[in-house]
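In response to the reviewer comment on reproducibility (Comment 2.3), we provide here a single inverse folding case reported in full, input and output, so that an independent group could reproduce the run without further information from us. The structure tokens appear first.
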């Protein structure tokens, strides 16, 4: 009879499984696991590794590779990290094995990032994420849609636009449709108002001259880098919160408000804010009203 390697080369995976059904030696088990993977039976391959882990440690380098890659394939990243820690604590002398262990630390991180971006999840999993009540999970579902045909998920995205309780998630869903240039009128709960929009006709945020000018002013006028970065974050959050509306404040008043709220959140000197308003010729009371609106967007985002 042909060797297991020869059968694998000939893609006779079912025959390999028959031959190795009762095998207890590491070499045969590794072939069995490879055959299961070739047939798309990832869970069964993982079970085979789990049940025979002690036997398979005779080739630790190969075991680490197969075990970690199967776990990542199944999106079991916490388990992959746990198993990698287990393998690190086993006695080994090979420098090559040590390099493999280090390589798979990075491998797990990269595969998890890819999974979040949606490169390795199927349509069913995307739908599961989009219909979750957990905002963080929904965000990963939205991110996953970027690499897929958006029309498949439109019913779920339209439900998010209308019903998801957080404005941020509703806004991110709309931004996804804008990015994908979806040419369809959809209903969108914009803060507390129901509106209808055609994403293909909307201008994406952060691309107009007003945004560019405000960013330049923040970077040039705010001397404290911490206040500058905080102001940029607050402004970006506000624009997403009010999208698809545009910022209605004049540039100087907005600049003063961003300086004031960024300073307040960092517990900086409050008198500097008043000096900034006087410098720009803006009424402090009016600027404080803008600050309150900015705060509302951040706190309900």
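Designed residues, in position order:
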């Amino acid at each position: 009879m042909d060797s297991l390697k020869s059968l694998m080369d000939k893609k006779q995976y079912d025959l390999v499984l028959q031959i190795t059904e009762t095998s207890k030696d590491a070499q045969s088990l590794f072939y069995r696991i490879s055959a299961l993977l070739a047939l798309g039976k990832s869970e069964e391959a993982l079970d085979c590794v789990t049940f025979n882990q002690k036997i398979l440690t005779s080739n630790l380098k190969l075991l680490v590779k197969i075990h970690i890659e199967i776990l990542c394939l199944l999106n079991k990243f916490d388990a992959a990290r746990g198993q990698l820690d287990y393998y690190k604590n086993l006695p080994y002398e090979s420098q090559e094995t040590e390099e493999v262990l280090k390589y798979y630390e990075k491998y797990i991180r990269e595969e998890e990032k890819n999974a979040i971006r949606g490169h390795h999840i199927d349509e069913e999993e995307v739908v599961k994420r989009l219909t979750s009540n957990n905002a963080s999970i929904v965000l990963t579902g939205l991110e996953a849609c970027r690499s897929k045909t958006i029309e498949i998920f439109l019913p779920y995205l339209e439900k998010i636009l209308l019903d998801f309780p957080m404005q941020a998630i509703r806004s991110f869903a709309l931004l996804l449709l804008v990015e994908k240039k979806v040419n369809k009128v959809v209903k969108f709960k914009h803060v507390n108002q129901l509106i209808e929009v055609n994403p293909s006709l909307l201008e994406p945020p952060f691309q107009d001259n007003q945004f560019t000018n405000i960013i330049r002013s923040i970077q040039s006028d705010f001397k404290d880098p911490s206040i500058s970065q905080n102001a940029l974050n607050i402004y970006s959050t506000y624009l997403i919160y009010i999208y698809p509306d545009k910022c209605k404040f004049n540039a100087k008043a907005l600049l003063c408000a961003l300086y004031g709220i960024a300073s307040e959140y960092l517990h900086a000197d409050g008198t500097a804010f008043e000096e900034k308003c006087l410098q720009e010729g803006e009424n402090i009371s009016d600027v404080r009203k803008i600050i309150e609106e900015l705060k509302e967007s951040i706190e309900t985002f």
